[in-house]
Amino acid sequence: xxxxxxxxxxxxxxxxxxxxxxxxxxxxxxxxxxxxxxxxxxxxxxxxxxxxxxxxxxxxxxxxxxxxxxxxxxxxxxxxxxxxxxxxxxxxxxxxxxxxxxxxxxxxxxxxxxxxxxxxxxxxxxxxxxxxxxxxxxxxxxxxxxxxxxxxxxxxxxxxxxxxxxxxxxxxxxxxxxxxxxxxxxxxxxxxxxxxxxxxxxxxxxxxxxxxxxxxxxxxxxxxxxxxxxxxxxxxx
Length: 237
Hints:
This protein is α+β, with helices and mostly antiparallel strands. It has helices at residues 4-18, 23-65, 70-77, 80-89, 105-113, 156-165, 173-182; strands spanning 97-102, 118-119, 122-123, 125-126, 133-135, 144-149, 169-170, 191-192, 196-198, 203-210, 213-220, 232-233, 235-236. It has one domain (56-236). The strands form 5 sheets. Strands 4-11-10-8 form a 4-stranded mixed β-sheet, with helices on one face.
């Protein structure tokens, strides 16, 4: 949006430009501006879709290279057009991820999902009993996407109120793992998955980068370690 001084300057320039023209000529120019605006919007939307398409294809290549079963890849590919259309219509804040594909642990289990998280040549591993992981939010049963994803910068305890106020949703363990598969977030901070619990009500699954590589373990909700980050998304489908 233009500042007041910018707006006043532009009005002055347009006034000078229109000076001497008859009303019909001015109306024609207004119509041309509206047409140009419409065309520019179409072109910008297409350019944005092209960028989103590259992101989608890159994510599929990552999954394929890390051993994702073909049936799951096909399930994601079947959603390609819908995902690109939905993301293209969303306002994505700078630094946020437009979308991330999520494989529910009912499909591969955490023992299958964590090895897809990599740090160089080091492969992800979990110390958690999968039977003790429960989700606090409702998620789709089949492979799906999360949208407008923030990898997190605050501890789960501090972030919960802010995430709720922004009408966003904390990520589950499956979703946190997915973000770590497709980004280098672990090089900056660990990813707390506040959308899930591990055993007790105040224990949260955490994707953690140790000297041995990426690990899925748990930490208590009130942990204020500066390496924490509570990830969130705005929607799922």
